[in-house]
Amino acid sequence: MRPDYTSYAEFPNDSKPMLCSIVINSLDSALIAEIIFFAEGLDACKVCPLVFIQLFKKWCYIFFDMQRSQIKYNITKVLNA
């Protein structure tokens, strides 16, 4: 059974290429990791790439958060000096 999509707004045409590249990049990363794991002989080559991509995204978020807190610290240090 399909839900009714009449209340949803359409994406503007200029934003579709941007979103498409994000989706394709994520899928390509999973496929590349799957091929590498398969070439190395891992039995769980379908599951491992998804786990590693999730870990990489969490690492990027943690790294970004650390950078942001360091910038805030530097700004307050300059303002208080």
The percentage helix is over 70%
Please count the helical segments.
2
E-strand count:
0
Please outline the major beta sheet. none
Q: How confident overall, as mean pLDDT? A: 69
Strand proportion, as a percent range, falls in: under 5%
Structural class, judged by helices and strands?
mainly alpha
Please give the domain count.
1
- The rounded Rg comes to 20 Å
Order of helices and strands: HH
Distance between the termini: 64 Å
Q: List unreliable stretches of 5+ residues.
A: none
Shape: flat
Descriptive overview:
This protein starts with 15 loop residues before the first helix and ends with a helix. The chain has helices spanning 16-40, 48-80. It contains two helices and no strands. The chain has one domain (16-80). The chain has 81 residues and is an all-alpha fold.
Summarize the structure.
By secondary structure, the chain is an all-alpha fold.
Q: What would the keywords be for this entry?
A:
72% helix; mainly alpha
SSE blueprint and pairings:
Layout: H1 16-40, H2 48-80
Helix pairs in contact: 1-2
